[in-house]
Amino acid sequence: MPALPARPFPALVSAMALGVTLALGAGPVPGADAASAVRFTTFVADPSGKDERTNAKINREKIAIKNTGRTSVTLTGWTVRDQQNHTYTVPRGVSLKAGKTIVLHTGKGTNSSTDLYWGQGNYVWNNTPGDKATLRNSRGSIQDTCTFTASKHRSGTVDC
Ligand SMILES: [Ca+2]
Ligand SMILES: [Ca+2]
Fold this sequence. Notes:
By secondary structure, the protein is an alpha+beta fold. The protein has 2 helices and 11 strands, in the order αβαββββββββββ.
């Protein structure tokens, strides 16, 4: 019996199978990124108050990324993108240890082990429902998405 059924997306299926294998503790593998383990948690798409265009206010727009796996993941080259194709690329030297969370702020700031800064001078995430964050790994494979839905519109925050 073939290992993989004939499906429209064999590459995706094999990538998922690889992720599962790694999550089960296959150990460090060169190039492994424990793909499915890294995901969005909290998405503050429209923070409270007016959208005054100050850096401090813009940085209240943020999205948290968590490594739910058991091994550290290098995030360099990963991207976060909105529905309008504003794209943030994680710079060199950024990794996320098992169980840790890093928060991507829309505005400017100094990156640390807990916070990343997109460097935008204006808001990226829409105030209206429907904007969607997409997380891709360095190979361009989608790892997670989080949509600012109508039901969450009042609070401005989504639990992904
Ligand atoms: Ca806003
Ligand atoms: Ca947007």
